[in-house]
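thread: overnight batch results

M.L. [08:02]
morning all. the overnight job finished for the chain we discussed friday. pasting input first so we're all looking at the same thing
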Amino acid sequence: MISIRPIRKIDAAAFREVLDAVSRERRFLGGLEAPPEERVRAFVESNVDSGYSQFVAEEDGRLVGWCDALPGTPPAGTAHIGYLGMGVLQAYRSKGIGRRLVEATIAKAREFGLEKIELSVYSSNDAAIALYRNLGFVDEGRKKRGRLVDGIYDDVLLMALELRMPNQLPDPTSPSVTPPAGA
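M.L. [08:03]
and the structure it wrote out:
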């Protein structure tokens, strides 16, 4: 049975393995291999410490997928936007795991106080595009020939999901209403 749960610091190495496996398929993610273990560990630890929306799918103690929506930064004026990333191991696709991961990520992003989630997806990734559209994401743009890997061009679709419109008042219990010190 597949469970969806928040990522934990001890998941860093297993998360990196899944990230690396999906990256090495050379079709779905911006990177073609996972970053070094130390960098991934620091990334996961920072996300957990910050309470960001990052979930994993687990079967019998083995991670098989992830999804996150990490906020931008106040200096860039993007702290209200979450940037979605996700991946599921090939053997576990088309089983509803991606949907469950994205739904959990969206719910946590709302609780965190994010107003919008953005993502980019390659135009050849029909399954992911259908999933995102089914969850309410809309097209916001297209980068024609935005990717070239192994001699193959792919457009990059820019999609987004509005969680809260600018004229809506924020949830006063949201952690993002009062920025952390030094932010």
